Prior knowledge:
Elements: H1 2-23, E1 40-48, H2 49-54, E2 69-73, E3 78-81, H3 83-95, E4 104-112, E5 115-123
Parallel strand pairs: 3-5
Antiparallel strand pairs: 1-2, 1-4, 2-3, 4-5
Amino acid sequence: MRSVSLRILTAGVALLLPLWAQSTRNTDGQHAGAAKSQAQSWTGALEDAGCKATNPNEKCEISATTKAFGIQTADGKHFKLDDEGNAKVRAALQAQHKDSGDVTATLAGSMEGDMIRVAEVRIH
């Protein structure tokens, strides 16, 4: 009797395990517990990312010709923006009639590697 119960239990686990594993995957095929970029925000000084790349110790204020932006947060960290983020920052600057100098912004989005994928821009 004990042997039969053990076989039934083993068969039940063998049948249910694949169903459980499939239910823990989300629509992207990743496990539901897998880390994804969380929505975050960063506030700081916008900077010219091209200038910063070649002159890491310089203050690289933005100009009317800046095409690649970055942001320096209050704790001194520097982050580059994705291409769409660069376009969103340029549009926000034009809307505020600010295109150069010391400009503070808040960026909302997610971190992907060492780059911010920008969802929203607010110029201060």
